[in-house]
Amino acid sequence: MTWVRLLSSRSAIGWACSLAWGLALPHGAFGGQSAINGGIGSRQERARRDLVSEEARVSVKPGRAADEWTLVSPEGEPFFSLGVCVLDQGRKKEDADPDNPGYGGWRHYATPSAWADSAVRRLRSWGFTTAAGWADVDALAASSEPAMWLTPVLHIGSTAGAPWWDMWDPRNLRRMDDVARGQMLHLARSRPKVLGYYSDNELGWWNATLWKMTWEQPAQSGQRQRLVRLVQDTYRHNWEEMAKDFDVESADSWSSLGRRGILYLRSGGQGIRVMRRFLGMLADRYYQVMREIIHRYDPRALYLGDRYQSFYYPEVVEAAGRYVDVVSSNLNAAWNDGAFPRFQLDTLHSVARKPILVTEIYMAAQENRSGDRNSMGVYPVAGTQAERSRSLRSTLESLAALPYVVGVDWFQFYDEPRHGRDDGENFNFGLVDIFDRPYEEVTGVFSSFDPTALRKAARPVRADARGGAPRAPRDPMDGFTGNAALASWDRERGFVPCSTPHPQADLYTCWNPDAIWLGVFAHDMVESAYYRGAGIPKQDRALWSASVNGLPPIRARIGAGREALATPVETRVESLSGFNQNVRLVAVMEIRASQLKRAPFRAGEIIDLSASLETHFQAARYEWSGRFTLVGDTPFSGGQGPR
What we know:
With 643 residues, the protein is α/β, with parallel strands linked by helices.
């Protein structure tokens, strides 16, 4: 769910202020005392006594196999959490808009408890265990049906301004404590089955924005003071060395920088390293504070993280792994068949070293009863409900195959309004339409989903290009837009394993007699706020290089929302990218046999392939290499095989 969606979501407390400020503290900044206000006051102590329960709670434990994790119920039974987001009654009667019809429980049920009884009965029959983010807790508490697990989103940081506001400031820490206490006390009154708490939703963690806003804080800000010290220590108080990496505005010495001024990246420098260290520092303190607040009022609860926005910075994830019990992230499928890049969850898990709860998955269809056009956003869209169901099944089975995934949440209970929410989003996301009628093909997929059985079943080793580089589709560039780019490729057998630890990019290869084709899908976080001027300099854009059989490499500048620039210029390279909240970078490179001055490629031939990708400002570098046998006599015509 995007930041815009958060603005109009069911628990959008103080979102506007969350867009503007913040910081986190370094680890152990308060010594042995509480990180919040140096200790707990009488009001907090009373609230804590009201919340603390001796009842057993859900825990998370490693399994027998490598990287395997599972949730364990209070009774000691392992289980997989299957949740649904936005489990509420929709629009209130007084908010109904006849020009933009939307879901409203009052149209179909006499009371909120009747709505809740029906919703819980249906969800349980469809296999769901959990009322996920933005559930109507009060209505569900009044239901006569057995309670579902709850995973509330507390919005602690975003309401109080973290990680944007100065988290050294006791006033901000008290604000966060107040937000958590109020919500957790309200929840406790209904004695819910809380699986765990999310501290926030989709904070974004935009590196350049956090950096710039920190410099804009007053000189007495603890956040700004620590940033100045970080920069000084990094460059050993050498102003001239620092100025090689940063474009300094409104300061000409360390003394003046302590009072005012902003550092922007200097094109071609190494300043991005300092900025990422700063981001890791913020994240460390954020998660430390959030864990302490949540455990102050519910010490047995799981801390489920802050629901990443389908992408993440490794520095943030590494910090999270020190404090969360489960790391959480939304998962927006990259293709309309429900598939997602291998790196997306594998790297998240390998960096955090914690189990993963996938907090939102999506799948819509153009054919739907609510009249949703599915046009305002980049989410997977199938043609029919039958195709939607097949794609959903593919996503669920792929997730069940990952031993570190302990739960999945579907977004959402009902379709969005016919002409969109207040932010314009207009997707057929529902288990039910706006008339409360289930999409039986979709609910049938959930009803038959058995993650335990899927995990017990023997699965073949996942295919990749080491078993043979597959034939290309008839037109490898077909539909090179949005979720269709690379959709026609055999991304399973064409996957090239990365030799770099923790990649945030996947490389695919295929061939035909005329050319070797390469495709890359990466996350590249590019912000205009890195620079004092407008635009992203060419030399700072992502650099993709590839070589076949040891010949001179082909290079292409890609990303930052611009056209690809290839060298040699006759090389065909196409890319899709953006900046400022658009992190997807997808590109295709055609390396023609004629360009290499050789005969056409043929089945059975072995090629040596090496490739690399440097992301924006050389923030990361990923490498691939190997010898691959060209296989297949006819163009690939679809079907990704087992995941």
